[in-house]
Amino acid sequence: MTGNQKKILYAAAPLPVLLLVYFLWPSGAASIPTYQTKRGEFEIYVIESGSVRAKNSFTITAPRILSGGNLQVVSLATEGTIAKVDEVLVRFDPSSALKRMSDRQTELKTAMADLAKLKAQQAADESQAKTEYESAKLNFELAKLARDKMQFEPEARKREAEIEFERAKLTFDQAQLNIENKNIVRRSELGNLQLRIEQIRSDIAESQKEMEALTVKAPISGLIVYENNWSTGRKIAKGDQPWPGMPLISLPDLSAMQTEVSVNEMDISKVTKGQAVLVIPDAFPDKTFHGTISSVSQIGRQKGQGSNVKVFDIVIDIKETDDVLKPGITTTNKIVVDRLKNVLSIPIISVVEEDAKTYAYVGEGTSFEKRELVLGARNDNFVVVKKGLSEGEQVALRNPEQKSDEKDGLENGSPAAPPAAAAEK
Prior knowledge:
By secondary structure, the chain is an alpha+beta fold. 32% of the residues lie in helices and 32% in strands. The two termini are 40 Å apart.
């Protein structure tokens, strides 16, 4: 392989290939591997792990039974399957609800019988009161006529007729008052019983709703995921007795997925809403998805119990859909925080640090010139060179002044890269 062929190989190869060649390349100045500098777009990114979740998800909870009683799961839809709208997800034991329904219906029958009896009794009382009223009215009219005829009779007869008239008037007034009072009582008794009947009917309607609530159906289509039962320490299962409002099943909508990522507090200042992200499922490294940051938490939290590291949660909307994007799978997320146009960059392994300065060995024929550099932004593999190099020059991928048996940073598993403080901000 000629020297030019070697240079072309290193200019096109990614960093893992460069490292492999670095270890296997023969020793000697003429055989030092090089990288040809070039200008182009330079990505600055943050890489963090995350977990996939659905953008939209509906949580099925245990129904709230107003009449009390324990809930018991008697059947569950199969976890991991796709539920369709109105598909039955959970059934609860209806025996207690059925008994309450039966009791209320019996009460309603009794109340309706009482209502019929009351109406019949009130009709009889009303008829009797009207009869007494009419009789009193006739007697009053007769007494009035009799009194009027006594104007030419002796005083004693007049007095008797007057007394009889007053007695008939009192009886008539009492009969009139009695019929009015009975109407009031009748309306009150009827109203109370009708109110009781309405309450029983309301209870029956509520019991009917509770009966329907004991069969839980899917409001949307989605993947069936069982929730954890805190009482048992495992996922919800047949026979469990959840409390009202307890989460039972999640239905994530797989048509729109997200990944939730925790970003270290040292990097969160670089992350903003709207930035582009490359999302790679750890279980499917050959698949890459594109995403956009949709939200960035403004409040940090501890990374773990007892940890002093603070992280900030961000949410990334994934643009594509795929069967591999299931809730819970882990992802590696490359957040592109900036793109620099038309900059010169070199592999970090080609940079040498000495006395707080950074250098690169630039190829000059069969030899190398040690040249001081001013560095800029960097990513995991490359660093921007602000001063010290020109496009098209060859830089050594290892220190040519170092003997082959000398140990360097690469042999210890990490390139001899300059610290961030050595790069020009």
